[in-house]
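Query form — protein Persulfide dioxygenase ETHE1, mitochondrial

QUESTION: What is the three-dimensional structure of this chain?
INPUT:
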Amino acid sequence: MVMIRQILHLYFLFFFTRSNFVKITMAFKFFSTIGTGKSRLIFRQLFDSVSSTYTYLLGDATTQKCILIDPVLELAHRDFQLTKDLNLKLVYAVNTHMHADHITGSGQLKTMSGCKSIISKSSGADADILVKEGDYIEFGNHKLKVLSTPGHTNGCCTFYFEEHGMAFTGDALLIRGCGRTDFQEGDAATLYNSVHQKIFTLPESTLLYPAHDYSGLTVTTVDEEKRLNPRLTKSLQDFVQIMNNLKLGYPKQIGEWYRMVAFWCKSFNTLSVQFFAALKWKQKLSSFSLWLVILLRPDPGHQASLLIALIHVSYST
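ANSWER: The structure tokens for Persulfide dioxygenase ETHE1, mitochondrial are given below.
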């Protein structure tokens, strides 16, 4: 009989108030091998404290094949080392969308492991595999279903793992929140409909794992968010009004993101869209420096890309 092993780490943090009362907070972290037989899943939730990004490792315990969801460039070596420590073969580096708050680690992981990169076709980005609604991402005996959930960006996807009752929502749905919709092709009404039609229609017990959290929370459920999400429990009209009046600051790493965007874009038209999106940030920044490297692949048979332009734009206000 195969035993299911789960290691549960309990971290007890004691904070003494001025009244000498003790407040105990328990933070639960699961480092698990889930399921039995061919369905055994190795699962890790990893965190980048700079961008508050969650990266997820999902591995097939039988075939040793694994994927990483939303890897961060600066921590690509950490993630790759973990796959080696667990005797796993990284087959895909997957992104839920094009990120503006950090640079993806997909390229670095491809260099280190030989894995393939995956992103939504609707993102306008370049990758080894471009997915769309209804596609599956397979690793060993497991597969994730691609759900198109635009609104934060055009190319946002949620990856639904029906076998284990899990979904990886990217920035479409956060724990008691959602991704912003004020730039990068964002649209509040589209996001609202994506969440209500694609995520809230999943079984209510489905565990939801977001791409970010800023308060130490790690996981939620469909049921919780349908009842408790302060934005998405509102009407569509109220939600749009809330999102249009958030007045959020710009992402910390927005400059670095636009410096790298050319390497993601597969066409000049896509790059132009991202370039003009960058210009919208001029009013929000006291100084802004942007480097764009435009790469052209003139023929699929060419293994080397051709450098055709280098543009530097600098703003000071």
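ADDITIONAL NOTE: Helices lie at 76-85, 106-113, 188-199, 222-228, 236-244, 254-264, 268-279.
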